[in-house]
Amino acid sequence: MNLLQGGNRHQIARRRKIDFCLHLLFAAATSVGVIALCALLIDIIIDGISRLQPGLFENFPSRRAERAGMKSAIVGSMYMLCIMLPISFVLGVGAAIWLEEYAGKNRFTRLIQLNISTLAGVPSIVYGILGLTLFVRLLMLQRSLLAGALTMTILVLPIIIVSAQEALRAVPKSRRDASYALGANRWQTVSRAVLPSALPGILTGVILAMSRAIGETAPLIMIGALTYVAFLPKHMLDQFTVMPIQIYNWLSRPQPEFHELAAAGIIVLLAMLLLMNFAAILLRNKFSKIS
Amino acid sequence: MSISMPMPASAATPARTARTLIEIDRLNLYYGDFHALKNVSLDIPERAVTAFIGPSGCGKSTLLRSLNRMNDLIPGTRIEGRIAIAGTDIYSPEVDVETLRKKVGMVFQQPNPFPKSIYDNVAYGPRLHGIRKKSRLDEIVESSLKAAALWDEVKDHLKRSALSLSGGQQQRLCIARALAVEPDILLMDEATSALDPISTLKIEELVQQLKDRYTIVMVTHNMHQAARVSNQTVFFLNGEVVESADTEQLFAGPSDSRTEDYISGRFG
Ligand SMILES: Nc1ncnc2c1ncn2[C@@H]1O[C@H](COP(=O)(O)OP(=O)(O)OP(=O)(O)O)[C@@H](O)[C@H]1O
Ligand SMILES: [Mg+2]
């Protein structure tokens, strides 16, 4: 049979060899990342597991390691998320809807688009400086929970806008046409035909943005979130701290007991991040099923 | 005169007697610099089926989309001339586009149901226009699905996702959805080209039933389909109307040699 004789055996063997080598190379590249992550996790778990006790969640920070906990930091992070979430959702999704559904494609909107993409890559400390000038000083919110949440809102806005735009763009044009052809106006089309399909994608982006915010430290240090807070914020203008700042504070102390506390804090933070990313994946899967 | 296709046995009643519903007068349409429709003048009769035929890119869809102003959604289109429906210029500033589109329904080439239930798909239009009452919506959904010859197949699972239907059922659902807002005119842009022969036949039968109540304008690439279901046929070439006549007459003896070449399959 010709089929078995036509190929150049030598060449085929060579191609297979190259394919095999590349396969090994890519697997090695992947394993570097995985091994590094595992090493980090194991190291942290060994250090921190003994401190992962109720006290960690129930106690306020203390000068004595055995009494120290991160209650105020966990609650502070939660409060911050609760304030950020609605504000950044409305602003981010609103901007994405405007850019995708309302604004024409002209030089002005292209400029805005470029700006947003650039802002997504600006170092977070810069947002800290902005927050300090705008919210802490100019609007005189002081070093409050509200100032921190607003700073973080601005930090995550570009992420939310870009991912919401992608989700909106993924909705096929034929679906908009179907709605317009039935006599829908623009908002009716956006709200009834486009958003329901885009919502899971939008929410995924919002959750990922929130998980970014929960781990950010630099901008909050910049605007002066405290490192020692032995009370829970009662209203939005109270001072506050968040988990990564508490961890940073513990790590910067000389005593090894505090380093164990920091490791335990990192485990809690990682668990939360994992949970949020898991929720995002669930949403993503649901998304691919319905559309 | 040699025509290489079978003649329609049952081309419906002549459209001669019907009143003109849509008058297109010296219409020019530009996509940016591209002159897509050139001086198109055409009368479309009421309660009859008008078929647009012609080679790809000759402007059939463009003209169809001008009739419900879907072209407004494409940036850079410019239109000159006049389209009047029942005497009203639809491009005049007093005309409300949403009301126009309610009156001039459209069915697209690819079935495009919303990823919602069958019921919600049909109720989408009525809800847009402010109908909230459950009993009223139920009535509309039932009558629209019946009119689109889909009711018997779906009446027991109206809550099921529209995406679970077959392609042909989806297209009939899209027709039902268009009928639910009580249009006078139904535009169909190659509505059967994505369907199998049996679904196509069902939709052709449906069109025959609907033309007693609606004015139907359809684009088709299928000469047999045009001959089978339409009363009037319009042949387009390069953005111009070459010939517009009674379907029977156009297929039996086209007056323009280009029409003859096209329908006998010599180009296009
Ligand atoms: N949005 C658009 N922007 C620019 N040009 C367009 C646009 N839509 C259509 N055209 C051009 O206008 C001409 C007519 O297009 P149209 O879609 O009306 O053709 P058609 O007769 O429906 O063709 P087909 O049978 O392939 O559907 C084509 O040359 C096409 O390239
Ligand atoms: Mg077309």
From TrEMBL, chain A:
<dbReference type="InterPro" id="IPR000515">
    <property type="entry name" value="MetI-like"/>
</dbReference>
<feature type="transmembrane region" description="Helical">
    <location>
        <begin position="145"/>
        <end position="168"/>
    </location>
</feature>
<feature type="transmembrane region" description="Helical">
    <location>
        <begin position="20"/>
        <end position="46"/>
    </location>
</feature>
<feature type="domain" description="ABC transmembrane type-1">
    <location>
        <begin position="74"/>
        <end position="279"/>
    </location>
</feature>
<dbReference type="GO" id="GO:0035435">
    <property type="term" value="P:phosphate ion transmembrane transport"/>
</dbReference>
<dbReference type="GO" id="GO:0005886">
    <property type="term" value="C:plasma membrane"/>
</dbReference>
<dbReference type="InterPro" id="IPR005672">
    <property type="entry name" value="Phosphate_PstA"/>
</dbReference>
<dbReference type="GO" id="GO:0005315">
    <property type="term" value="F:phosphate transmembrane transporter activity"/>
</dbReference>
<keyword id="KW-0472">Membrane</keyword>
<dbReference type="InterPro" id="IPR035906">
    <property type="entry name" value="MetI-like_sf"/>
</dbReference>
<protein>
    <recommendedName>
        <fullName>Phosphate transport system permease protein PstA</fullName>
    </recommendedName>
</protein>
<keyword id="KW-1003">Cell membrane</keyword>
<keyword id="KW-1133">Transmembrane helix</keyword>
<keyword id="KW-0813">Transport</keyword>
<feature type="transmembrane region" description="Helical">
    <location>
        <begin position="111"/>
        <end position="139"/>
    </location>
</feature>
<feature type="transmembrane region" description="Helical">
    <location>
        <begin position="261"/>
        <end position="283"/>
    </location>
</feature>
<keyword id="KW-0812">Transmembrane</keyword>
<dbReference type="Pfam" id="PF00528">
    <property type="entry name" value="BPD_transp_1"/>
</dbReference>
<feature type="transmembrane region" description="Helical">
    <location>
        <begin position="78"/>
        <end position="99"/>
    </location>
</feature>
<comment type="similarity">
    <text>Belongs to the binding-protein-dependent transport system permease family. CysTW subfamily.</text>
</comment>
From TrEMBL, chain B:
<comment type="function">
    <text>Part of the ABC transporter complex PstSACB involved in phosphate import. Responsible for energy coupling to the transport system.</text>
</comment>
<dbReference type="InterPro" id="IPR005670">
    <property type="entry name" value="PstB-like"/>
</dbReference>
<keyword id="KW-0813">Transport</keyword>
<keyword id="KW-0547">Nucleotide-binding</keyword>
<keyword id="KW-1003">Cell membrane</keyword>
<dbReference type="InterPro" id="IPR017871">
    <property type="entry name" value="ABC_transporter-like_CS"/>
</dbReference>
<dbReference type="InterPro" id="IPR003439">
    <property type="entry name" value="ABC_transporter-like_ATP-bd"/>
</dbReference>
<dbReference type="GO" id="GO:0016887">
    <property type="term" value="F:ATP hydrolysis activity"/>
</dbReference>
<dbReference type="InterPro" id="IPR027417">
    <property type="entry name" value="P-loop_NTPase"/>
</dbReference>
<dbReference type="GO" id="GO:0005524">
    <property type="term" value="F:ATP binding"/>
</dbReference>
<dbReference type="InterPro" id="IPR003593">
    <property type="entry name" value="AAA+_ATPase"/>
</dbReference>
<feature type="domain" description="ABC transporter">
    <location>
        <begin position="22"/>
        <end position="263"/>
    </location>
</feature>
<keyword id="KW-0067">ATP-binding</keyword>
<dbReference type="GO" id="GO:0005315">
    <property type="term" value="F:phosphate transmembrane transporter activity"/>
</dbReference>
<dbReference type="GO" id="GO:0035435">
    <property type="term" value="P:phosphate ion transmembrane transport"/>
</dbReference>
<keyword id="KW-0472">Membrane</keyword>
<protein>
    <submittedName>
        <fullName>Phosphate ABC transporter, ATP-binding protein</fullName>
    </submittedName>
</protein>
<dbReference type="GO" id="GO:0005886">
    <property type="term" value="C:plasma membrane"/>
</dbReference>
<dbReference type="Pfam" id="PF00005">
    <property type="entry name" value="ABC_tran"/>
</dbReference>
<keyword id="KW-1278">Translocase</keyword>
<keyword id="KW-0592">Phosphate transport</keyword>
